[in-house]
Structure formats: structure tokens, C-alpha cells
Automatic annotation (TrEMBL):
PANTHER family hit by this protein: FLAGELLAR BIOSYNTHETIC PROTEIN FLIR
Organism: Stakelama tenebrarum
Protein name: Flagellar biosynthetic protein FliR
Protein localization: Cell membrane; Bacterial flagellum basal body
Family, as annotated: Belongs to the FliR/MopE/SpaR family.
Lineage: Bacteria, Pseudomonadati, Pseudomonadota, Alphaproteobacteria, Sphingomonadales
Topology term for the membrane: Multi-pass membrane protein
Keywords noted in UniProt: Bacterial flagellum, Cell membrane, Cell projection, Cilium, Flagellum, Membrane, Transmembrane, Transmembrane helix
Length: 258
């Protein structure tokens, strides 16, 4: 038995585990990959497969001392870069939830809750519909492949061991959180404007005819108008969802990788 072969495998194994930290952290925070419906063994296998490809695309050397403070700091830096790449995308994916809150309250669907299959939490039913639509569009434009490409390219821009994010980049990532509210409001703008007009009309009717039952007329009218408005505005909302995906991928590259 060739003992030299066994000695040459161990550094490669540590290098693979070192690479898997950044890749696994990105998948832990990124949408689609972080869905609870994906089994943990499948995530680990996917992370390891991408880690092997990354080792061939970029020179990765394992730390000299495995159990040391320097190595722990390097691992923390790798995890921070991966989490930042996925977290920026996760911020953009929160825009449909903001839009659903704006539209759902005006339509009277604020009480309609459903379990989100990705996060396993209770979310508005309308927000779940928009989130599923955004996820399908993200997969249709190969956004998941672009994310993998960003993770692999990050090793050329931020070599392992030198990947610590500057405070200014962390601040920019935090400020990007406002984009979720901006995109959500713009996504709900067509439907929200029509619902506002309906509420104004119902208010005028309630003032002109005080005996009119506002709840018996206003709530069904708002719900019907909201459903019709969503059906009419759905193509435009789909186009803006593509814009959100494009902005999220661009922000991941700009805010994290520079």
C-alpha cells in the first residue's frame, strides 16, 4: 500500500472542507437553496460537488494549522462572505411579502395566512403566491446558476484567508435592505392605486348615504376589485419581478465582491 498517496489526500480533504464553508454559507442564506423542503444530505452533497469544481477553478490551499485562532478567523471570514452573497438575494425576495401586505390589507385578505414551503413559516396567502412566482422566474432565468458562478468567482476576487468584508461593504448590505420596501411598494402600486380609488368611492357613498351598510358593500367590492386588478396587472408584475431578480444579482456582485 502506498502511504504517500494517503498523506496527499488529507490536505486535499481539508482544502475541500475549507471551500465548502463559503459555498455552504451562501446556500444557507440564499433563496431556493435554503428551502426546508431540500434535505440536509442533498445540500451537503451539492455543496461538496460545487466545492470540488471550485478547487479546480481557483487555487485553494488549506490552512497550515487546522486548530488555531487564525484558522477559526479565516473560517469565520469565509462564512461571512457566503452569508453576504445569499443574504442580499434573500433581501430582494422579501419584496413580494411587502407587496402582499400592502395589497392584502386593502383587499381584506390580511387574515388569509398559509405556510410558506421554503421557510416553513406562516405568511400571507397572496405573498406566498408572489413568492412562488418569483422563485419560478428566478429558476427560469438561471438565477441559481448565476449565484453559483458568483460564489466561484468570489475566490478569484477574495482569495481564501483574505476574504474579510470591510465595514463599508457591510453597511452597504444593510442599506440595501431598504430595496425590499421600495420594490414591494412598486410591485403593489398598480393594485394599491385601484384599491385606493375603490375605498375613496366607498367613503363617498357612506357619506352620501349614511344608512348604507359600509361593511356589506365595501369589503366585497374591495375584494372583487383587488382580484380583477391582480389579473390585469399580473403581466406587468411579472416583468417587475424579473427586474427584482436582476437587481438582486447585480447587488450581490457589487455589494459583496465589489
Amino acid at each position: 500500500m502506498n502511504m504517500g498517496f494517503g498523506l496527499s489526500v488529507e490536505p486535499q480533504l481539508w482544502a475541500l472542507l475549507f471551500v465548502m464553508v463559503r459555498v455552504g454559507a451562501a446556500f444557507l442564506a440564499a433563496p431556493v437553496f435554503s428551502a426546508v423542503s431540500i434535505p440536509l444530505p442533498a445540500r451537503i452533497a451539492l455543496t461538496g460537488a460545487i466545492g470540488v469544481l471550485t478547487m479546480h477553478a481557483a487555487p485553494v490551499v488549506a490552512p497550515d494549522e487546522i486548530f488555531s485562532i487564525t484558522t477559526m478567523l479565516m473560517v469565520a471570514a469565509e462564512a461571512m462572505v457566503g452569508l453576504a452573497l445569499g443574504f442580499v438575494l434573500q433581501i430582494a425576495f422579501a419584496a413580494p411579502l411587502v407587496a402582499s401586505e400592502v395589497m392584502g390589507v386593502s383587499m381584506g385578505l390580511g387574515f388569509a395566512q398559509a405556510v410558506d414551503p421554503q421557510s416553513n413559516t406562516s405568511t400571507p396567502a397572496l405573498g406566498q403566491f408572489l413568492s412562488v412566482l418569483l422563485t419560478l422566474l428566478f429558476l427560469s432565468v438561471d438565477g441559481h446558476l448565476v449565484l453559483v458562478d458568483l460564489v466561484v468567482r468570489s475566490y478569484a476576487l477574495m482569495p481564501p484567508g483574505e476574504a474579510w468584508l470591510a465595514p463599508q461593504r457591510l453597511l452597504n448590505i444593510a442599506l440595501f435592505g431598504g430595496y425590499a420596501f421600495l420594490a414591494g411598494l412598486l410591485l403593489a402600486l398598480p393594485v394599491g392605486f385601484l384599491l385606493l380609488c375603490v375605498n375613496v368611492i366607498v367613503g363617498m357613498l357612506s357619506r352620501s348615504a349614511p344608512a348604507l351598510n359600509l361593511f356589506a358593500v365595501g369589503l366585497p367590492a374591495s375584494l372583487a376589485m383587488g382580484v380583477i386588478a391582480i389579473l390585469i396587472a399580473l403581466p406587468a408584475m411579472g416583468d417587475y419581478l424579473l427586474v427584482i431578480i436582476h437587481e438582486a444579482l447585480e447587488a450581490s456582485q457589487l455589494l459583496v465582491l465589489g
